[in-house]
Amino acid sequence: MTTVAAYAAPAANAPLERTTIERRAVREFDVLIDIKFAGICHTDIHLVREGWGEAIFPMVPGHEIAGVVSEVGPGVTKYKVGDRVGVGCLVDSCRECDNCKAGQEHHCVRGAVQTYNAIGRDGEITYGGYATHVVVDENFVVRIPDGLSLDVAAPLLCAGITTYAPLKQWGAGPGKKVAVVGLGGLGHVGVKIAHALGAEVTVLSQSLRKKDDGLKLGADHYYATSDPKTFEELAGSFDLIVSTVSAPLDLSAYLGLLKTGGALVNVGVPEEPIAFHPFSLIGGNKILAGSMIGGIPETQEMLDFCAEHGIGAEIERIAASEINQAYERVLASDVRYRFVIDNATI
């Protein structure tokens, strides 16, 4: 075991504080990663504050990890010391079920092991990226292409794959009209990716406050959902809508924006249940779906795609001592568009 510095929440709703944690010794197929940057995801806040249910404490959040390999186990073949790598939302799975064999480890039927707030298959609690180092099996590590800076790449390990996966699955591309609901940590990356895929992209946001940003990021159109005329004007317009917000929406209204056979895919997760009228779904054979990150192969595909198209997150780098303040700013939508911790400050 190795003792490393970290920032942890000692209990639910408690401020995060500097502490130390134990990382396991490097096993045969493990890599030790010197974490350079860790993104702050809204999921971190949901879990620290038990918005999605009971959690494990003390908790070291962080599943947007970018760093450099500093040690490898004797059986490692994919990475060497000095490689630029990332770790996303999961660090293990059964590797035997049909989903795992198909590269869909996040849908492991026996349960994927999350990067933090989970119990690993060794019985130990997992701790995330708000730390100086992490030890991960090589099969759950991805390579960060040279064309991406580590700081702007870190949020792609969650925000990037979370938006890339549904855009690819539901055919975003030339000739398709795609709407992204919310221009936040997830949404701004989704806009960039949808644009790079060749789709006609519309941002649907509560107000026009971020319109200039949205258009610069690649959106073709930008509408305020607080204006009822938006839903009248855009009725039946979209092949695909990706909702990135963690607030409850009027799903019936958004389903009305879809073309016949169109899909509304939720990647944001509100803390409250959402209701909708079934007629808004069956009228027009519409699809209401969900999407949760992606497997390891698709995460690597996403990183390669982003490097090819010059896509990184829009970030504000912070010191670890600013994490608690950053959480409050995320809740106030006061970030454009992703906080990234400089882990050298831990």
Automatic annotation (TrEMBL):
<dbReference type="InterPro" id="IPR002328">
    <property type="entry name" value="ADH_Zn_CS"/>
</dbReference>
<dbReference type="InterPro" id="IPR020843">
    <property type="entry name" value="ER"/>
</dbReference>
<dbReference type="GO" id="GO:0008106">
    <property type="term" value="F:alcohol dehydrogenase (NADP+) activity"/>
</dbReference>
<keyword id="KW-0862">Zinc</keyword>
<comment type="similarity">
    <text>Belongs to the zinc-containing alcohol dehydrogenase family.</text>
</comment>
<keyword id="KW-0560">Oxidoreductase</keyword>
<dbReference type="InterPro" id="IPR011032">
    <property type="entry name" value="GroES-like_sf"/>
</dbReference>
<keyword id="KW-0479">Metal-binding</keyword>
<dbReference type="InterPro" id="IPR036291">
    <property type="entry name" value="NAD(P)-bd_dom_sf"/>
</dbReference>
<protein>
    <recommendedName>
        <fullName>alcohol dehydrogenase (NADP(+))</fullName>
        <ecNumber>1.1.1.2</ecNumber>
    </recommendedName>
</protein>
<dbReference type="InterPro" id="IPR013149">
    <property type="entry name" value="ADH-like_C"/>
</dbReference>
<dbReference type="GO" id="GO:0008270">
    <property type="term" value="F:zinc ion binding"/>
</dbReference>
<dbReference type="Pfam" id="PF00107">
    <property type="entry name" value="ADH_zinc_N"/>
</dbReference>
<dbReference type="Pfam" id="PF08240">
    <property type="entry name" value="ADH_N"/>
</dbReference>
<dbReference type="InterPro" id="IPR013154">
    <property type="entry name" value="ADH-like_N"/>
</dbReference>
<dbReference type="InterPro" id="IPR047109">
    <property type="entry name" value="CAD-like"/>
</dbReference>
<feature type="domain" description="Enoyl reductase (ER)">
    <location>
        <begin position="11"/>
        <end position="341"/>
    </location>
</feature>
